[in-house]
Design a protein that fits this description.
With about 725 residues, the chain is of the alpha/beta class. The protein folds into five domains: about 200 residues, 3-Layer(aba) Sandwich (Rossmann fold); about 190 residues, P-loop containing nucleotide triphosphate hydrolases (Rossmann fold, 3-Layer(aba) Sandwich); about 110 residues, Arc Repressor Mutant, subunit A (Orthogonal Bundle), CATH 1.10.10; about 70 residues, HRDC domain (DNA polymerase, domain 1); about 110 residues, ATP-dependent DNA helicase RecQ (Arc Repressor Mutant, subunit A, Orthogonal Bundle), CATH 1.10.10.1390. About 50% of the residues lie in helices and about 10% in strands. The chain has 34 helices and 17 strands. Strands 3-4-2-5-6-1-7 form a seven-stranded parallel beta sheet, sandwiched between helices. Helix 2 runs parallel beside helix 3 and helix 32 packs across helix 34. The longest helix has 21 residues. It is globular, with a radius of gyration of 33 Å.
Length: about 725
């Protein structure tokens, strides 16, 4: 009967006909007034585990939650399920006095079944006093991993939850998290004083998610833009580690015609909320965010999650990738990895307490191990969360779809186990590997292990191979990491059995992530990738136009502009304006024939255009250019313009030249006639009329020493502006 009652309540309040996974057992445990610990991956339906019992029990349930955005989201959702707005409220720093009064009134009148509070608000004296006056059904601690320093989002104020609850009044407790290693789980239970709680753990396997790691090279922006464009119209999230990167990359995506918005904790809260809502309402396809985004964001149809930077821990990675494919449909998780990023993160930890640095370092090492492994990614992830995945090939990660050959490593494993045993199980992976390859670190010297028989005994293999042996021995259960003690390696009973009687142990070697990628020259200029056929055709076209319009060819477009066109194949006037040296004026005046030629060439040769070309954002430079043009219109002397902007005169001329080359017409006669002799002006002007090129050195040589460089440049500006623009 109780079961039917529960199903009826589910149907009545939420419109669902069946429970998901172990929701029913969890809810029954809460209704029975027992402490409950819930470990359920993102998308498994955690919120319902406290929402439904709160509606069925006497009193108000207090939900402690870390993020204001999350609370708003959940409260809105609850109000949608009920006719009564007062059914759910939140209490946090974003509310004004009147709003707080309304919340209190609804609570005292018994209208409110669910009250969301931030841990900071819970500790305020006046709130503690007030909450003692109302009947409480139970407490729920959401995102409970925030309690643990080993969790990926540690918040010190979460450590104070238990004492505050004792002060307000003891009631049953439900703690929920979407990611927790065994260590974090133990930490949460100990801190909340719920060691006797019933633990409900769902499988962390999300079979519909595809995991892939790509090397992060200099073209990472291009790769991501290309990926997003081939998945046009689908919702996606791009995670970056820094707020600055979020802003920059969102701008780059916008400049490339992608509907993207930024989201991070440093933005004004109205803007942040508006961006989040735009994403939920499908007005934007992509959110570029720091990890602040997504806790509790219930968007079921996110089709891809891209990590621009690897997160600081595997828990963070699991939680963030978990926002993809919540509806069971397609969910692609692609991360760009270079070890340099993790080294940078390690540097940021300097100055923190030693224990915190040790924890952070270990979490980073786990991330590196996951990224570099050639094993099934699912297997590695689930092992990290204390779950065994027995399939050999999951068929939905890059490593399983392109499996590497397995090699016999029986002897290598025997060596590792022997060394771990001989060193009394007191050292970490890094130490064991350094000892084997004979790397004389300060730590090895301090223990005098550089004099031991094991030092350098594994020199025949490289560091990568030894790391792979140890990682895969951990997953196979021959070794275990003692997390309480900074990840020291210990031999398991299975490992001891292997030492007595070794058996076949096959490993896959780690993936290659080339660390010298920064030394690869980034394509400078466009010349490296120029399409020679198109370039020649455009030079011909330029010659024809130059004859027809009686202007020298360089007045139409300079060589670097043609090179850029022959690299990126612009086929609209708008795209043409992204070419260096081509402004709106030039594009309008000369562009049509060039883009027609390019379009035809692209179609005939079936060329795939790099339309995901990174657009340079030049906001500040263009501000300066606009200011220079306005100053010239007001006939301010050029040397005065340079002084005002703190520029050398030659620097200013370079700016003016680029203004003219990109097609803007300006008139500097007022200045030129003042500072250059009339005869000189006409001599230089005539020279450029017949010249093959606008090259400055050549002009200086031809015209001779009577003419200064500045004079030639000034007249060249006048010539280009009058003839070309």
């Amino acid at each position: 009967m109780a079961q039917d009652k529960l199903a009826e309540a589910l149907q009545k309040h939420f419109g669902f006909s069946t429970f998901k996974g172990n929701q029913r057992e969890i809810i029954e445990n809460v209704l029975a007034g027992r402490d409950t610990f819930v470990l359920m991956p993102t998308g498994g339906g955690k919120s319902l585990c406290y929402q439904l019992p709160s509606l069925m029990m006497e009193g108000t349930a207090i939900v402690i939650s870390p993020l204001i955005a999350l609370m708003k989201n959940q409260v809105d959702a609850m109000r949608n399920y009920s006719e009564e707005d007062g059914i759910a409220h939140f209490l946090n720093s974003s509310l004004n006095k009147a709003a707080i009064e309304q919340v209190r009134e609804d609570l005292l009148n018994g209208r409110t079944k669910l009250l969301y509070v931030a841990p900071e608000s819970l500790t305020k004296e006046e709130n503690v006093e007030f909450l003692r006056k109302i009947p409480i059904s139970f407490y729920a601690v959401d995102e409970a991993h925030c309690i643990s320093e080993w969790g990926h989002d540690f918040r010190p104020e979460y450590r104070r939850i238990r004492p505050i609850i004792n002060e307000i009044g003891k009631r049953p407790l439900i703690a929920l998290t979407a990611t927790a290693t065994p260590k974090v789980q133990h930490d949460i239970q100990k801190n909340l004083g719920m060691n006797e709680a019933a633990v409900f753990k769902s499988s962390f396997n999300r079979p519909n998610l595809y995991y892939e790691i790509r090397p992060k090279g200099p073209d990472v922006d291009k790769e991501i833009i290309k990926y997003i464009k081939t998945n046009e119209g689908k919702a996606g999230i791009v995670y970056c580690l820094s707020r600055k990167k979020v802003e920059e990359f969102a701008d780059i995506l916008k400049a490339n015609g992608i509907k993207a918005l930024p989201y991070h904790a440093g933005m004004e809260s109205q803007v942040r909320t508006a961006n989040q809502d735009a994403f939920l309402m499908e007005q934007a396809d992509v959110i570029v965010a720091t990890i602040a985004f997504g806790m509790g964001i219930d968007k079921p149809d996110v089709r891809y999650v891209i990590h621009y930077d690897m997160p600081k821990s595997l828990e963070g990675y699991y939680q963030e990738t978990g926002r993809a494919g919540r509806d069971g449909g397609e969910g692609n998780c692609i991360a760009f990895y270079t070890y340099k990023d993790l080294q940078k993160l390690e540097k940021f930890m300097q100055g923190k307490p030693v224990a915190e640095q040790e924890i952070g370092k270990q979490l980073l090492q786990e991330t590196a191990a996951y990224a570099e492994t050639a094993m099934c990614r699912r297997k590695v992830l689930l092992h990290y969360f204390g779950e065994e995945y027995t399939e050999d090939n999951c068929g939905n990660c890059d490593n399983c779809l392109n499996p590497k050959k397995r090699v016999e490593a029986k002897e290598l494993l025997s060596t590792v186990l022997e060394v771990v045993g001989a060193l009394k199980e007191k050292f970490k992976t890094e130490y064991i590997v350094n000892l084997l390859i004979g790397n004389e670190t300060a730590e090895i010297q301090s223990y005098k292990h550089n004099e031991s028989e094991y030092f350098g005994s594994g020199q025949d293999e490289d560091e990568k191979t030894w790391n792979a042996v140890i990682r895969q021995a951990l997953i196979a259960g021959y070794l275990v990491k003692d997390i309480e003690n900074y990840g020291l390696l210990k031999i398991t009973p299975k490992g001891h059995a292997f030492m007595d009687k070794p058996e076949s142990f096959k490993i896959v070697e780690d993936n290659e992530f080339d660390e010298d990628e920064e030394d690869v020259p980034v394509r400078g200029g466009a010349s490296c990738a120029v399409d020679p056929t198109l370039y020649a055709m455009m030079k011909d076209l330029r010659k024809k136009l130059s004859k027809r319009l009686s202007v020298p060819p360089f007045v139409i477009f300079q060589d670097p502009s043609l090179e850029a066109m022959a690299t990126t194949y612009p086929i609209t006037l708008e795209e043409l304006q992204n070419i260096p040296g081509v402004g709106a004026g030039k594009a309008k005046r000369y562009g049509k024939e060039f883009i027609d030629l390019i379009r035809k060439h692209v179609e005939e040769n079936e060329i795939e255009r790099p339309e995901d070309l990174r657009v340079r954002t030049v906001a500040n430079k263009s501000k300066l250019k606009v200011w220079i043009v306005q100053s010239i219109d007001r006939k301010i002397a050029l040397d005065d313009i340079a002084t005002t902007k703190g520029m050398e005169f030659s620097e200013l001329l370079t700016e003016v030249e680029s203004i003219v080359y990109s097609g803007t017409r300006i008139n500097i006669d007022y200045f030129l006639n003042d500072v250059v002799d009339e005869d000189h002006i006409s001599d230089i002007y005539d020279y450029f009329k017949t010249a093959e090129t606008d090259n400055l050195e050549q002009a200086i040589e031809e015209l001779g020493s009577d003419y200064t460089e500045d004079e030639i440049r000034l007249v060249r500006i006048k010539f280009l502006s009058e003839m070309g623009n």
